[in-house]
Amino acid sequence: MRASIAILVVLGCTLQACSHLPQLPSPPQGLPRAEDVPVALGQAYAVTLRREDVLRLLPGHNLAIAQAQAQVATQKALLAGSWQGLLPVWMPAWSAAHSEGATSSPHGLVLSRESYAWSSAMWSWVINPGQAVFDLLLARQRLLRSQDEARHVRDETIHQALRQYDELQLARAQLLNAAVALQQSEELLRLERVRWRAGAGLLADELRAQTAVDRARQDKLSAAYQFYQRSLAMAATLHLQAQTLVVPPAAPLQLICLVEPPYELERMSSLALLQRADLAVLRRQLDIDSKKQAQLLAQNLSPQLQVQSVQVSPPPTGAPADALIRQLRQSVVVRWSASPVLGGQLQAALAQRRQTQLAWAQSMDALNLQLAQDLHSSEWLQQRLPLAEKTVKDAEQALQLAMRQLQAGAGLTLDVLQAQREAEAARLQWATVVVRYNQAQEDLLDDLGLMQQLLPAA
């Protein structure tokens, strides 16, 4: 029954510089590797990716990150347009006309036909100084907000991708666990058939063993389906080709340590306040709301300056009565305007600022709650790790003992079946605890706004 304890190779835990984690024993060497069990996955193309590979591919492949970066580029263009809007407008023109009619002369009415063309150029500069200043300030604040939003999208995408990878690893562990359970069930069925042919067994025991094999095969198919679905979801996050399967490397599950204790809620909350991109977005929005009120006042109360100059080609006829020479060439206009809707606009701006302030308070409450919950989850799962490890060892030892007793003729098939189910559940529980602990560490890092530290250096 060496295959019965192969799960220790599959679900063994390698520590990564986490001094506060329990020191687990090294897995046995030279045992059959359950991770080598083949799985039929149709016509899909499989690619093996480590956690580091996912983090390396994510910034350049994920569509949500690309969309956020495009929004930043849009805001940069709008800021450049705000600066360009301070420049005067240059309007060259070319005109042509044809006229026919009668004009009076000493000799009476004279019919005349004239065709002529002329060119002109005008530049105009219209500016509200106060509004222009605040338009530039708001455009810059919107650019900074879009950069913070892009950082938030990147951090959340990293968090989502890592959780997907963890779930993919758990699905693989479930599949390997189901494969080991199937091997154990088939070994029991083989033994019962030998006993039945030798006259030392019962037909009912053989049928029970066959039922266990059938159930194990169904469990393996279900585990393969779950692995297939989660693998496709991981590929979609990385924007890989259709039907690409992301497969973790054939290696034991590993505990990851991202946030070292001691865990102090107040210190971690202060750090999150400085690092989290979503809180930076709210701070930018508060600045924008404050400047919006000043912009409305400047727009309605600041004077508007208009300077205009027109250059026209000489009159085509040279007659002093030609209408072209009477056109206005230069003008300077200073005007004020006050709209009756200013009061309503200011009230709306105040209400928007109040709404942003409430969103800030709500975000802080949610942050403190999430930090407290994730801290508790991390500590709770850390306590469960050695218990889950001991449960696997005890269940495997009980299964080996039940098999030896059955082979010696002193045990019951029902005892072996029960021991197999308990060992399978213990292995799955161990894998679940390891993955959930890793996810709790990732949640803590995300709470602190430090997910970008996981990205490889450019």
Summarize the structure in words.
The protein has 458 residues and is α+β, with helices and mostly antiparallel strands. The protein has a single domain, classed as Outer membrane efflux proteins (OEP), CATH 1.20.1600. Helices cover 61% and strands 13% of the residues. The protein contains 9 helices and 6 strands; from the N terminus they run αβααββααβααββαα. The chain has helices at 7-11, 51-61, 63-84, 129-197, 203-237, 265-275, 277-301, 342-407, 413-447; strands spanning 45-48, 89-105, 108-127, 244-247, 304-312, 330-335. The strands form 2 sheets. Strands 2-3-5-6 form a 4-stranded antiparallel β-sheet. Strands 1-4 form a two-stranded parallel sheet. Strand 2 and strand 3 (108-127) form a beta hairpin. The chain is elongated and about 145 Å long. The two termini are 49 Å apart. The model is unreliable at 1-17, 22-41 and 319-326 (pLDDT under 50).
Topology:
Elements: H1 7-11, E1 45-48, H2 51-61, H3 63-84, E2 89-105, E3 108-127, H4 129-197, H5 203-237, E4 244-247, H6 265-275, H7 277-301, E5 304-312, E6 330-335, H8 342-407, H9 413-447
Parallel strand pairs: 1-4
Antiparallel strand pairs: 2-3, 3-5, 5-6
